[in-house]
Amino acid sequence: MTTTQAKKAATSGSTGLPTIEVYSTLTKKKTPLVTVKPGHVGMYLCGPTVYKPSHIGHMVGPVIFDTVKRHLAYSGWSVTWVVNVTDVDDKIIAESTARGTTMAKLAAEMTADYLENLAALGVTGIDEMPKATEHIGTIVAFIEGLIAKGYAYASDGDVYFDVTKDSDYGKLTNRSVEQTQGEGGSTAERKRSAADFALWKKAKAGEPAWDSPWGPGRPGWHIECSAMVREELGDTIDIHLGGADLVFPHHENEIAQSEAASGKELARYWLHNGMVNVGGQKMSKSLGNFTTIRALLDSGVSPMTLRLFTLQAHYRKPLDFTADALEAAATGWKGLNAALGLALSSTNAAGSAPATTAEPAVSAAQSPSDPAALPPALARARQRFAAAMDDDLNTSAALAVLFELAKPLRSLANRLERGDADAAREAQAPELDAQASLLHELAAVLGLRHETSPTAASGSTTSAAPAAAEIEAQIQARQAAKAARDFATADRIRDALKARGIELIDKPGGLTDWIQA
C-alpha cells in the first residue's frame, strides 16, 4: 500500500467513502473532510438579503455549492444543504420605503426572483430555505440565552454581544478585539465597546417590529444565521459556506455568538467563494455595477453558459465579469453542449436510455459508473475528474476532463450535422457510447445539462421538459411572486413551464400540482 493509499484508508474510516480534502478559512489549510455524523454532511450557506433583483454575484455561491453537494452525493455521502433568506434588514426597509411598498411585499418579490434564477441555473440541491421572519421566536430565545450567560446585554431597547467576554473572538480572521471595527452612528453611546455588535435593534417609528423582552424591534443580521443554523442543523455543523466578503464581520460574529451559546464548535470547515469583480471592483448592488440574471438571460446568454462561467475558475479565486470572459464561456459551452447532445443521441441509439434534455438526478442513492467496466482511457479520465473534485473541489480541473471527453464527440457531431455517412456509422460504436455516457455522467456532477437552444432554459424558447426538482423550484418562485402580488412574474413562470410541456394546476389552500402535457 502506498503512502497515499494508506492516508485515504485511514481518513475514510469505516464509511468506505473517498477522502475529500477541503480548504477551511479557519485553519488556513486543506484537510480531509471528517464529519460529525459519519457518511452525512450538513451544509449551511448564508443566502441573499432580498431587496433587489439577483445578479451574477448572487449566483456564484449557490452554483458552486450546489456543485459541491452534487459531488458529495455522487461520491456516496448523504447531504443536507440549508440556504437562508434574510427578509428583514435595514437595506430591505430602506428600499421598500423608496418604492412605496412594504418590507414583506418587497422581500417576497425579490425572493421569487432569487428562486427563479436558481432554477434557471440548475441549482436544485437546496433542502431547506428558512426565512429570518419565520424564526423570530427562535432568535429571541437565542438572545435571552446569551444574556443569561453574560455574553450579551440590553441597552435602551437594543441588545449587544459583548466581545470582551469572548476570549476567542477574532479567530476566523486573526483579529484582536482592538483591531475590529465596531458599529458607529447613533447607537455607539449605548454600547460598552465600539466592537460590540447588535443582536436586537430597537425599532424606529414606522419600521417593521416584533415584540421582545427589550421592546419592539427586529433581529440583527448575524444572530439570524446563528439561530437558523442551530434550528435546522444543530449546534455543530460540518460545512459553513459563504462569499469571501462575509468572513468579517458576519461569520466572525456568527462564531462568537453561536459558540458562546452552545459551548461547542459552530462549524468544522469554513468554505468561502471568491467574489465577482467588474473592472477591478467587487460587483454589488450598492455600487450599481451589476447586470441582473434576468437581463442576461433575456439578452440571449444561456443559463448553462452562466453556470460554466462560475465553474471555470477555482471557487476560492475571484471571477472577472467581462464581455470577453462571458463570450469565452459561451464558446466553451457551445462545444460542450454539442457533445452532450450527441451523448444523449448515442446512449439512445445504444438502447441504454431514451434521449432527453431533462437533467439527470445525482443523489447519494445513485451509483457512479464502475471504473472496471470502462475502457482504460475512460477509467483514467473518470479518476482524474474525481481526483480534481476531491482536491478542494477543483471544478476548473474537472471541466478540463469534460472538454477532453467532449472533443471527439463534438467533432463527430459536426460531421453528423454535415450529413457525413461515415460519421453516422461511427456514432453506433460501443466505445463511443461509453465515452458519451461518461461525459453525461460527469457533466451532471457539475450540474451542466444539455440545452436544445442557447436560450431554451431561460423560458424564451421551447425546450424539453425540465427535471422534477427544477419544476418544484419554479413553483416556489411562482408562489412567492403571487404572494408579492407580482402577477407578471408569476404568469411568466407558468407560461415558460407550459412551453416546456408542464401544466400547473392550482388547488385550494395555495397548493400547486403539475402534470406533463
Short synopsis of the structure:
Helices cover 44% and strands 14% of the residues. The chain has 16 helices and 15 strands.
Characterise this structure.
- With 517 residues, the protein is of the alpha/beta class.
- It folds into three domains: 36-293, Rossmann fold (3-Layer(aba) Sandwich); 300-458, no CATH class; 468-512, no CATH class.
- It contains 16 helices and 15 strands.
- The protein has helices spanning 3-12, 56-74, 90-99, 103-120, 136-148, 221-233, 247-262, 293-298, 303-311, 323-349, 376-390, 395-417, 421-426, 430-445, 468-483, 487-499; strands at 21-24, 29-32, 40-45, 78-83, 152-155, 158-161, 197-202, 217-219, 237-243, 267-273, 276-278, 281-282, 319-320, 502-507, 511-516.
- The strands form five sheets. The chain has a four-stranded parallel sheet, with helices on both faces. A four-stranded antiparallel sheet has the order 5-6-7-8.
- The relative contact order is 0.12.
List descriptors.
4-stranded antiparallel beta sheet, Rossmann fold, 517 residues, 16 helices, 3 domains, alpha/beta, 4-stranded parallel beta sheet, single chain
